[in-house]
Amino acid sequence: MAAFLVVVLNWVGQDYFAPQAVGLVLAVAAVALAIAGRGRRVAASWCALPVFGCLVLTHQLTPFWVLLAVWALVLLRMARAWVGAAMTVLLAGYLVAHLDAVASYGLFSGLDVIANARTNIGPVVTWQQEMVSAFTRATALGLWAAAAAAALWAWRTRRPWMSATVVGAGPMALLLAQGYGGEALLRVFLYSLAAAPCSSRRCSCGCCRAAGWWRPRPR
Question: Is 218 part of any domain?
Fold first, then answer.
């Protein structure tokens, strides 16, 4: 169901064969491996590093979101600290080696969240554009509201909720640093899709179970 929601709700249009699409898959894999390696499965933590290295070479913005998410997971003791440190070294090394190219685009555009959230989309001139714009806003707000409700429900029922919440809400921190050429808000929604549908699925399944509409099949 989570995969279905990702496909249906993805109006950003970054699911074609492009660096962003490949980077999103690598990002989800890197975060999942970092979380999986917190216990005795240390090999998963080691596997997260080459995946993250490939991500650094693939896309400009996505590695910063993954790094924020991993360090948040480290603070919550849901990932190993050395994984976050190694990822920082990989990203910083690549950034320093290509600093002249990055500086021409700007690395930090200020802490103005409102300015960084502005898009580069032109003015709306037709009612069809207005309808599509309203639909995309409703989709984004609906997804985030459902994810927040799912996190609250999981917390109240003492179910795991921190990892999905951190990964799903973490992209919003990107608005504190970069406007990404007017596409930062689009990327925030795209990255939220990596975890928010998982929370929404958990909440919907829990609600259906509580209402008696669905029962898990016994193993």
Answer: no
